[in-house]
Amino acid sequence: MTARRPVGAHHHPRHAASSAAVNIHVRDLAQLFNSLDPSPFWDRDLDRTAAQFIEEEFSEKLSVENWHLYVHAHEGSTSQADLQAALENYYGRMASSARRALREYFWGAQWTLVGGVVVFLLSMGLRSALARLTGNLPPILDQGLIILAWLALWRPAEMLLYGWVPLRRRQHLYERLAGIKAVIRLEAPAPAPGVPAPSPPLKAMVRAS
């Protein structure tokens, strides 16, 4: 099946695969990096289009044990060690940001829970106090205070039970990508008669076996 993305991709069926490979084809290895960043390769950011493609493809393969990234290029002076360092630096930084975001999320969820408990206790306390004063609390007010009390706990419960899962999944993805091994394969451009048709700036083929 062929999917249309910012970078083209071709998928092949995977049957109980223990490894997955992403093959990226570029004209020049410099296309993998942010062209506005003048830093050396080991300090440079990856091109966001290439990085996003890699993340999307491997995010579907978190259950696969071994990941491989192959970069095929016709030209470029980037060494394999430089590319490896760039990947580790980029995704290591992304993993650190994801861990910090997860900590901040849990911190916010805890304070949301405290606020929810306070509203719950106030609502139920007010309900009991009004019932004692009036002897017969109007049903609409009685039910309204009960609903308010439980709604105050709904959001904190959702955050603590489910909301953190996507953040943890992204952190795990970045941590694995920071340790992925990349291989550069320089290839001679295929000869073509006449004027060759322009090729896309970046394309990739994903293969899992």
Helix content: 40-55%
- Assembly state (oligomeric): single chain
Q: What ranges have pLDDT less than 50 throughout 5 or more consecutive residues?
A: 1-16, 204-209
Shape: rod-shaped
User: Roughly what fraction of the amino acids lie in strands?
Assistant: 15-25%
- What class would the helix/strand composition place it in? alpha/beta
Rounded Rg: 26 Å
Number of discrete helical segments: 4
Order of helices and strands: EEEHEHHHEE
Distance between the termini: 15 Å
Tell me about the largest β-sheet: 4 strands, mixed
The tally of structural domains comes to: 2
Mean pLDDT: 79
With strands numbered from the N-terminus, the spatial order across the biggest sheet is 5-4-3-6
Walk me through what this model shows.
- The N terminus and C terminus are likely disordered.
- Helix 2 runs antiparallel to helix 3 and helix 2 runs antiparallel to helix 4.
- This protein is α/β, with parallel strands linked by helices and 209 residues long.
- Strand 1 and strand 2 form a beta hairpin.
